[in-house]
């Protein structure tokens, strides 16, 4: 039960932080359910159960048709490995089959399966098939059909096109090689570590990355170099998740990465980063080449074998790129990276071969000299790798050379300060290397015999992440901290030029949405946490009554297109703040449907309506029309009050307030929310309601809503009167628009009451209740499970709203002349219109 509790915490954290794709969340939940059964099965049934679970995962993610093709092609390739013919003939047949698949992968010939199948098929077989055939040739152990199927169709593989090269012999040898409970717990520890890496990657990606054009000094250059290399955290995070999940089913595989940022030499770096790749290259290429040419001499064999390994690494990375992306990667910076790194490893290996790596069975005594030397070597290795990584991730050699032009020395605090920061880095590096010998499983006195130091750390970490991922909790930490945490809960792009920042090899392989839209659609199919995506990464917290707002000058890539905000934090064109001459300006207030969630920028009804008005001016005065979209996803009616104050500063001629239903209920719900969150309410009328209702921050949600219910109609009336009064004071025409949802039974029961309240307050009212009449509303949603209007629905809204405005043109365009002399009282309301 303790293990299952930790797994459920992991599932919750994956959901709250939207780790990878929604497909991974579904596979995580499947894995958790499978583990709870698998752990109690007799040993002889566990491996078959894992295979069935893995095939179920493929079916869950891909659906029946694609799953059949993926499985069928895979089984065919496995079958070719076991043909009853000579080994060399089998290899020839496999090569021939590979050539056929290469031809199909290039899209020269149409295939009957979805392109989404290719990256996962390649991930399963492009390297594992080499290892499997090699071990069939050299291993004496009998093969097992269940083990073979488990090896190729591993459960997490369906969610990760970039997958570690698991060794078949190790996969077989480590199956329940130690106590089951320890293996399971180690897997959970590593999955927690993987999630930590991925969240750390999010922080680097969202807040530290710079484009080369933004480098203007040594400070920026250092940040650029560090951030580029730190982006690799996503690879190590994914690999820890993958191997950790396999531990849950008895495969006690070794680490994929081990403190690679703290390598003390280039050979040490090669041993620590992507350990499975290093083992694969040693096993398949290095040792066979080395022992075949060892007669040339030890040093010559070492040099030639290592050079061959790095040359083949370059080629195989391009080969991997082909299977995952469909194109072959050939670039000077890619070749330069592997050539330079290979040269440094050869030099390091020759040095170690000549002078030997110091090995000892006993723990070496600590000394200042040994500590300092190790620390400096670690920082030096890290610095060189950062520089090399920047070469690898650059667009071109010339672009990489150009970034170093910023290294013009200028005597300043910055020039002196940054070198001084190396001192704590050196000390930290030495400290990390000192605890490098830490082993899992060291018992500590605790409340259970199963609680180890690593387990206690994992449990504390998961509880912390689970709590900090809840919006009601992290918003209490202040606007800045809440904004940062909110950005960490999203996998979306953070800035306009982030698409240009992740140019590196691994980063581009990991961005599935950029190289295979079909696979991305599969991964995003009906997300279990769909609603969380609405504002994630696009918002920042303000600490005031509105709580949040859209980030200015921001770009987010969603599965339905790009969402951009202008310098004012609106999803709109970049308007000047002052009203241009001969212009009629409208401020549009609303929530996600008005903002245009689920459609591209030029597909929102606001954008289309503005075009209609400018193309078909019916005012007779040759006006230019501007509609400024102040809508923010998730905004409730009361949040439009502060938005209106902000909108007034843009000098609009009219304010369009868009209501979608349940205005009164949503208003009291928001009052209850801000009261329970202890958020200051800047309106005396609302504070009086809170006092009269007798609710406090300690009131339960149910009790608060019950106490506020008697005030719902008065609250709505006050809200509408306040908006109209504010508009009329500023000689702005207030327009109330009812926009129904794309539901079979939309929120229309309270529509008559809403109309009455709007008319009583003094709004010009527009009713779009029939905008979707005679339409299949299901076909007007952005997805089956999401009722936001799609592009077609926005077109219908824009057309209907244009016609309604045309009918109300005298009330909207001429009424400014009649409100200049009106006496307005915000509390009693404006005079009737």
Structure description:
- By secondary structure, the protein is of the alpha/beta class.
- It contains 38 helices and eleven strands.
- The strands form four sheets. It has a five-stranded parallel sheet, sandwiched between helices. A two-stranded antiparallel sheet has the order 1-2.
- Helix 15 (298-325) packs antiparallel against helix 16 (332-355) and helix 29 crosses helix 36 (791-807).
- It is elongated, with a radius of gyration of 31 Å.
- It starts with a helix and ends in a 14-residue tail after the last helix.
Q: Give the terminus-to-terminus CA distance.
A: 67 Å
Helix content: 55-70%
Question: How large, in whole angstroms, is the Cα Rg?
Answer: 31 Å
Provide the low-confidence segments as ranges.
Answer: 409-420, 429-449, 494-503, 526-536, 817-833
Q: Please count the helical segments.
A: 38
Mean pLDDT: 84
The multimeric state of the shown protein is single chain
Q: Which structural class matches the secondary elements?
A: alpha/beta
> What overall geometry do the principal axes of the alpha carbons give?
elongated
> Main sheet?
5 strands, parallel
Overall strand count = 11
Strand order of the largest sheet: 6-5-7-8-9
What fraction of residues sit in β-strands? 5-15%
Give the structure's gist in a few sentences:
Helices cover 57% and strands 6% of the residues. The protein is of the alpha/beta class. Helix 3 packs across helix 4 and helix 6 runs antiparallel to helix 15.
């Amino acid at each position: 039960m303790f293990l299952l509790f930790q797994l459920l915490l992991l599932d919750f954290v994956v959901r709250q932080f939207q780790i990878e794709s929604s497909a991974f969340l579904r596979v995580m939940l499947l894995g958790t359910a499978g583990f709870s059964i698998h752990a109690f099965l007799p040993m002889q049934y566990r491996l078959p159960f894992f295979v069935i679970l893995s095939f179920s995962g493929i079916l869950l993610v891909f659906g029946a048709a694609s799953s059949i093709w993926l499985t069928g092609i895979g089984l065919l390739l496995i079958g070719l490995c076991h043909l009853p013919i000579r080994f060399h003939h089998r290899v020839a047949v496999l090569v021939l089959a590979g050539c056929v698949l290469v031809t199909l992968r290039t899209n020269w010939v149409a295939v009957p399966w979805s392109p989404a199948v290719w990256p996962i098929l390649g991930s399963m077989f492009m390297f594992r098939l080499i290892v499997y055939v090699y071990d069939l040739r050299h291993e004496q152990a009998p093969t097992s059909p269940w083990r073979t199927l488990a090896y190729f169709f591993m459960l997490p593989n369906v969610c990760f096109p970039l997958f570690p090269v698991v060794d078949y012999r190790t996969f077989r040898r480590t199956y329940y090689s130690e106590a089951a409970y320890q293996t399971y717990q180690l897997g959970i520890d590593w999955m927690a570590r993987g999630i930590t890496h991925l969240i750390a990657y999010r922080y680097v990606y969202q807040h530290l990355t710079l484009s080369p054009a933004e480098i203007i000094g040594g400070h920026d250059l250092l940040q650029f170099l560090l951030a580029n290399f730190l982006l690799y955290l996503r690879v190590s995070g994914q690999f820890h998740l993958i191997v950790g999940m396999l531990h849950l089913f008895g495969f006690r595989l070794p680490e994929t990465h081990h403190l690679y940022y703290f390598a003390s030499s280039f050979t040490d770096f090669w041993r620590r980063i992507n350990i499975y790749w290093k083992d694969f290259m040693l096993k398949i290429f290095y040792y066979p080449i080395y022992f075949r040419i060892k007669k040339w001499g030890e040093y010559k064999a070492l040099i030639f074998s290592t050079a061959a390994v790095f040359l083949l690494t370059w080629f195989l990375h391009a080969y991997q790129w082909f299977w995952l992306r469909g194109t072959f990667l050939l670039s000077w910076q890619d070749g330069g990276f592997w050539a330079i790194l290979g040269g440094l490893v050869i030099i390091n290996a020759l040095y170690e071969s000549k002078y030997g790596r110091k090995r000892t069975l006993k723990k070496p005594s600590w000394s200042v000299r040994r500590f300092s030397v190790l620390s400096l070597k670690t920082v030096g290795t890290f610095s060189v790798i950062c520089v090399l990584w920047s070469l690898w991730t650059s667009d071109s050699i010339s672009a990489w050379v150009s970034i170093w032009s910023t290294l013009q020395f200028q005597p300043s605090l910055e020039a002196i300060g940054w070198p001084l920061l190396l001192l704590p880095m050196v000390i930290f590096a030495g400290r990390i290397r000192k605890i490098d010998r830490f082993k899992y499983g060291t018992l500590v006195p605790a409340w259970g015999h199963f609680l180890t130091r690593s387990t206690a750390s994992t449990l504390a970490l998961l509880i912390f992440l689970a709590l900090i991922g809840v919006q009601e909790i992290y918003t209490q930490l202040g606007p800045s901290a809440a904004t940062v945490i909110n950005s960490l809960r999203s996998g979306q792009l953070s800035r306009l030029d982030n698409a240009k920042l992740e140019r590196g090899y691994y980063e581009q392989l990991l961005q599935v949405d950029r190289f295979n839209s079909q696979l991305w659609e599969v991964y995003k199919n009906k997300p279990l946490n769909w609603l969380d995506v609405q504002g994630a990464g696009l918002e920042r917290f303000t600490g005031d009554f509105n709580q949040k707002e859209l980030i200015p000058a921001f770009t987010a890539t969603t599965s339905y297109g790009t969402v951009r905000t202008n310098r004012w934090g609106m999803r709109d064109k970049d308007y000047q703040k002052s009203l241009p001459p001969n212009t009629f300006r409208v401020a549009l207030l609303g929530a996600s449907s008005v903002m245009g969630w689920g459609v591209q920028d030029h597909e929102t009804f606001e954008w289309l309506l503005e075009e209609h008005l400018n193309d078909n001016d019916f005012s007779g005065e040759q006006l230019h029309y501007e509609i400024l979209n102040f809508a923010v996803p998730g905004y409730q009616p009361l949040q439009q009050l502060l938005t209106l104050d902000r909108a007034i500063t843009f000098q609009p001629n009219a304010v369009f307030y868009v209501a979608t239903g349940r205005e009164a209920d949503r208003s009291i719900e928001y009052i209850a929310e801000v009261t329970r969150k202890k958020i200051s309410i800047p309106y005396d009328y609302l504070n009086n309601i809170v006092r009269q209702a007798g609710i406090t921050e300690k009131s339960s949600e149910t009790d608060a809503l019950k106490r506020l219910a008697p005030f719902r109609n008065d609250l709505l009336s006050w809200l509408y009167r306040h908006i109209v009064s504010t508009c009329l004071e500023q000689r702005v025409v207030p327009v109330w628009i009812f926009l129904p949802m794309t539901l079979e039974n939309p929120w229309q029961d309270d529509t008559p009451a809403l109309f009455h309240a709007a008319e009583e307050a003094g709004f010009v009212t527009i009713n779009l209740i029939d905008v979707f009449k005679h339409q299949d509303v299901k076909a007007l949603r952005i997805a089956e499970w999401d009722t936001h209007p799609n592009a077609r629905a926005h077109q219908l809204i824009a057309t209907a709203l244009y016609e309604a405005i045309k009918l109300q043109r005298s009330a909207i365009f001429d009424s400014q002349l009649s409100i200049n002399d009106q006496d307005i009282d915000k509390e009693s309301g404006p005079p009737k219109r």
